[in-house]
Every structure is written in structure tokens, then in C-alpha cells.
Amino acid sequence: VTALFAGPAFAEYPERPITVVVPFAAGGPTDTVTRLVAESMSKDLGQQVVVENAGGAGGTLGAGKVAQATPDGYTLLLHHIGMATSASLYRKLAYDPLNAFDYVGLVTDVPMILVAKPTFEPTDLKGVVDYVKANADKVNYANAGIGSASHLCGMLFMSAIKTKLTAVPYKGTGPALTDLMGGQVDVMCDQSTNVTNQIKEKKIKAYGTTTKTRIPALPDVPTGAEAGLPGFEVGIWHGLYAPKGTPKAAIDKLVPALQKALKDPVVVERFASLGTVPSSDADATPAALEAKLKSEIARWKPIIEAAGEYAD
Ligand code: MLT
Fold first, then answer.
1. 81 forms bridges with which residues in the sheet?
2. pTM of the predicted model, to two decimals?
3. Any coiled-coil ranges, and where (predicted)?
């Protein structure tokens, strides 16, 4: 019956490779999560799921690109909490986050860590706060542009210590991490999926996590609350989207393929080694992602407005 109503084109969707756009540069946390999930989904769908990086403007360029793409099931977007925060950070977006996409499901919720270049003097988070307050005009912090997770975490940090630092924007925290390790930039708040190994290898310093309990993969890194910065909490949830109007027959193939990928032992193990866990079957659904996006747009709007100068 599906073939009859959906037309022959969808009898055996997908018939050709699928592109998943990552709205940040290659080598960063979003890219890492997406490549692991895409690789696993390819097995279930019987077609290559190819990752395309489209960075810029804190993820809004890549999101806009997918919002305008042909809704045929062959262009998807893997984006994170930035889809929600950008709605309040940008006065004019090329897309309406609540009307430009169809939803496949939630993918993972990633913790963040405040990290610094290896030569950064402070030895703990309190020391960082004191140093940053005393040297605000000299300390610069890296992010992936307004609307990125690293921007959001930076905003929360600066708001918490009432000190504004100079932001150095990158197309993703992959390239930003390279500069942090080289000392070209001083501090960054980034996702465990990007910085866990560099912290373990002592290529960068870690001061506190944005979680209520310590990250199992990083047992020696205190939580923000433990380290003297209560309320420094944020989880970077990720979702898989399609352009609005994507045939239901395609979505109905993508949802189980996503759920299967999130239970793939390779994905589960790699996520764990990078400090995160895959979303459950209940969360890897269109309804759960839609509900999350709607509630998060509402939640962050007043926080961003209250952050004012720290949000730009
Ligand atoms: C961010 O929002 O900071 C991005 O996740 C960075 C990235 O994925 O490169």
C-alpha cells in the first residue's frame, strides 16, 4: 500500500546516497557525533549516508541550507541546541526553526567542559575566575560563532562571573581546539565529544564540567558546582532533521535506522569514550525532537535576553 500511495520513488527509499549536513567545520564535536551515527545508519539503510560540513554563523548557515533543500529524504541536518538558541540570538534568520523542518529524532545529549591552553596559569576553576576577572581585556575565548554550543557555554560562564571576554569565532571547535592546544587562544567551553582525549593526553587543561555529576570518561575533572561555579550547567542535545515536506515514507525509514544506530555497540562504546550516551528509542522519535526544540526555544529566550551583553 505504501508503494501505491507514496509512488514508486519511495517503494525502496533510499535508492541513492543520503547527505547529512553538519553546520560546523569537520573535526569538531558535531562532526564526530554525525560521522559515527551516519556510518551506522548506512548499514541499516543500505545506502551511503554522506556527511557534508557547512560551517559559518554559529551553525545557522548550514541549518538554512537544509531548510531550503529539496524535501526528498536525501538531505538531512544534524544540529544541536544551537537550533533553539539561534532563534533568540539572531534577529533575522533565513529559516523559521519551528516551521522549516521535519523531525527524525534526538541523537545524544553531550556535556561541556571549560578548558584552556596548556600554558594557562590557573590551577583550578576558582583560579580561572580570579585570573579572568583581573585580566578580562587580555583573555580571549574561542567559540564556533553566535548560536554555537561553545558560544552558549561561554555566555553562561561570562554571565556567571559578570565579566566579558573577547570571543574568537571559528567555523567549528575542531579548528578552535587546534589553536587552543597551540596557545593561540586562551580558553574555550567545548563538548566532551571534542576534548576528552586532549584532556586525557594533557594537551589542554580542564577546569570544570557543565554537569551535575562528573563525566565517567573524565573522572578527575570536577563539576562546575564542585569547583565553585554552581548553575554552570548545560547539556548539548543533538537532533536529526529533514527539510519540511519530506515524505513520511522516508521519515518512517529514517527513524528506525537512527534508533538502530544509537544501539550499535560501536556507537555506544565510542560515545561513552567521548563522555556521552546515545538517546533512547523514546527520544529518537519525531515527536520527542519536536517537543524538545519547542521547549528549548522557550527556555533559552529569557536566559539569552537576561545575558544581554554576554550573548553578543
Ligand atoms: C559548537 O556549537 O560549538 C559546535 O558544536 C562546534 C562544532 O561542532 O564544531
1. none
2. 0.95
3. none
